[in-house]
Amino acid sequence: MPLVPMRQILDEAAKGGYGVGAFNVNNMEQIQAIMEAANDTDSPVIIQASRGALKYSKMIYLKKLMEAAVEEYPQIPVAMHLDHGNSVETCLQAIELGFTSVMIDGSLDESGKKPNKYEQNVAVTKKVVELAHPLGVTVEGELGCLGGIEDGHGAGLSTEEVNTHLTDPKQAEEFVALTGVDALAVAIGTSHGAYKSGRVDPKTGEVLPPVLAMDRIHEIHERMPNCHMVMHGSSSVPPELTNEVNAHHAVQRVDGDPAKLRFMGKVFNLHDALDMAAFLMTLTTQNRMPGTQGVPLEQIADGIRHGVRKVNVDTDSRLAITGAILRVFAESPGKFDPRDYLKPAREAAYKVYVERMKAFGQAGHARDYAPMTLGDMKAVYGK
Ligand SMILES: [Zn+2]
């Protein structure tokens, strides 16, 4: 099966009332883990690559890995999507490479750092739709700005600033009508990366989940029942994944001296009482990944009941991979064959993908429909 246009995957998800995970990839292990998870749960799936991923993997490798993925699992509908395209040129490059879907993020300027004016967003998004649809390629746009930065992309808005850049439902209706996008990324207070909240319980000091403006999704869905919405920054960042990362930062011996230890980038001499005390303090209090909270699965489920069809998850697989690798080195510091840690890393990512596929509801839907080609989709847009 060739890669299918993302539009079909979203249309089918809308019919079935479920959401589809869009997972970011940079390398072979992530692609393999996603495909294995999709196959084992019988899920249609969206695989996406950011500009940073394309640079890291050198485009041609990613293209060939995706070809391998669809060849190995011909029964799984897979869309290949460009995440946060910054310009018309970047989107065209991705289309040329064989992507069946592109995001043009006109909410930010081309540098990906500064919010754009609404009119600029409309203009660039419309342009990409005009170029992509005649080729059968799906287009995702974004209205409003997300917090955080990922792969160098994002205005780095604070939690307070995020709340002044939420998607306006009325403007969303106009934006979709003016641009003709297939899917709309909404800003409802989510952020990219592992630190999404910025809220702390004043009594306990514990980090609280981010406040999401789910009412915006409800209202957009009411205004446009057929609009496919996209939730970005939707990793759940569960404690079992962050704990795994935090648990395995190993203490190392320095110069073979049992009393000299390197930990968190500092050397401690345990013969020195003050150093010993400092070491114990660092060991017990230093939080390697400070307290963090992601988007609770219940809120994603609420979104899915109200028109969210694509759920972007990147951080959770990053955490799973890093935790698995740290565990290998903590338990067997002598390991040096990359397969000894990349295989557990791939397995840990696989588990996350399986859980998300089940939670979003895409599991069991891979064989619901006959996959379309870009050519079929061209005809649909031409009507
Ligand atoms: Zn995003």
- The DSSP helix count reads 15
Uncertain runs: none
What proportion of the residues is helical, as a percent range?
Answer: 40-55%
Order of strands, widest sheet: 1-2-3-4-5-6-7-11
Rg value: 22 Å
Output the helix-strand order.
Answer: HEHEHHEHEHEHHEHEHEEEHHEHHH
CATH superfamily of the largest domain: Aldolase class I
Fraction in beta strands = 5-15%
Shape by Cα distribution: globular
Distance between the termini: 25 Å
Helix/strand/pairing category: alpha/beta
Biggest beta-sheet profile: 8 strands, parallel, barrel
Please give the number of β-strands. Answer: 11
Average pLDDT taken over every residue: 91
CATH topology (fold) name of the largest domain: TIM Barrel
Can you name the CATH architecture of the largest domain? Answer: Alpha-Beta Barrel
What is the C-level CATH assignment of the largest domain? Alpha Beta
Bound ions, cofactors and other small molecules, one mention each: zinc ion
Number of domains: 2
